[in-house]
Design brief:
By secondary structure, the chain is α/β, with parallel strands linked by helices. The chain has helices at 44-51, 76-82, 98-108, 114-127, 143-156, 173-186, 200-206, 226-229, and strands at residues 2-13, 16-28, 33-38, 59-64, 67-68, 83-86, 161-165, 192-196, 209-214, 217-222. Helices cover 34% and strands 28% of the residues. Strand 7 (161-165), helix 6 (173-186) and strand 8 form a beta-alpha-beta unit.
Length: 234
């Protein structure tokens, strides 16, 4: 479904250049549950942000279902409907209730009418256990509840793949489990999931394949197992 060829990303500032990603080559198949692990600053978040084109690669190419998404004229909004993103900080609209948060993208981006958008939103909120909170504003919810709404919002666009950028890093320990449970349930639906996480046990138990990143490169990749217990960087 997604292929990265020679992907590189360099950030430039007055203090100099930082090469965040270096010659990344990766193939993510349809239906894969793909875990990305590594220390802070290894390039994990930059990688998924490049896949969603929130960061533009400095070099290399990204392909989605065989089509280059980095070519001139590619329709990025349509691509983002198919490859959704769940962020660390939820990014919910604070002036909207839960239901409207899950409807607005469907109406404005996907062009659905309100009745269809509402029906899809209610179905997705039910999947993540948040249907009873449709009239609540984000500030009235816990961090775990807000993240579950953010997942429901992404699901409302009926994507082919979902990218998770450290979905539990902003949560307190008591609410981490409820979000990981939702992601685990999604892993059995056939949806392609790419999950950046520090939760090693979760990556080991849920992922079909795991990438270990270090210093902007893929140090190891493969099926979850021994290398998760003793990753070797080299």
């Amino acid at each position: 479904m997604i292929e990265l060829r020679g992907l590189g990303k360099t950030f430039r500032s007055k203090s100099g250049a930082h090469e965040a990603l270096k010659d990344i080559n990766l193939v993510i198949d349809d239906g894969d549950i793909f875990g990305i692990i590594g220390l802070s600053g290894a390039g994990k978040s930059t990688l998924v942000r490049c896949i969603n084109l929130l960061e533009w690669p400095t070099s290399g190419e990204i392909f989605f279902k065989g089509e280059s998404i980095t070519r001139r004229g590619f329709k990025i909004p349509e691509y983002r409907e198919k490859v959704g993103m769940v962020f660390q900080q939820f990014n919910l609209f604070q002036n909207m209730n839960v239901l409207d948060n899950c409807m607005v993208g469907q109406i404005r981006v996907a062009g659905r009418d309100r009745d269809e958008s509402r029906a899809i939103a209610l179905e997705c909120l039910e999947k993540v256990g948040m249907a009873m909170f449709i009239n609540a504003k984000p500030r009235q919810l816990s961090g775990g509840q807000q993240q579950r709404v953010a997942i429901a919002r992404a699901l409302c666009m009926q994507p082919d793949a979902l990218l998770f950028d450290e979905p539990t890093s902003a949560l307190d320990p008591e609410t981490v489990g409820e979000v990981l449970k939702v992601i685990s349930q999604l892993a059995h639906t056939g949806l392609t999931l790419i999950v950046v996480t520090h939760e090693m046990a979760f990556a080991r138990e849920v992922s079909d394949r795991v990438v270990f990143m270090d210093g902007g490169v893929i140090a190891e990749q493969g099926k979850p197992g021994g290398h998760l217990h003793k990753p070797e960087v080299g």
